[in-house]
Specification:
Blueprint: H1 14-19, H2 33-45, H3 50-63, H4 65-74, H5 76-83, H6 87-93, H7 95-98, H8 115-119
Helix pairs in contact: 2-4, 3-4, 3-6, 4-5
Amino acid sequence: MQTPYLNRGSAFTKEERDEFKLNSLLPSRVNTLDEQVKRAYDQYCNKRTAVGKNTFITSMKEQNEVLYYGLIQDHLKEMFPIIYTPTAGEAIQDYSRSFRKPEGCFLNIAKPDNIENALDR
């Protein structure tokens, strides 16, 4: 559950929940990916702003990539402007206020001598 690209959320089967000791970490009902996508889409639709929707989707990707890709696959045409331009630009401008978890590589333009070292990690 701590690895976003392996996390299946409430879609873990009863056997997987036993094997990976997930029973106390998940609701008892097993959901299909389609059920999770519908629930996530309802939550997405309740966000009032494009940046709010972008933040919701970004948070989902950080937690459960299986669900993230299932959701955008089903609603790509609608979500494309939210996950890319123009909304991604707005979200980047607001990034310092909504920062939750580091992802990728951060390069400091004020310290160009450190760029090679940062990229070496």
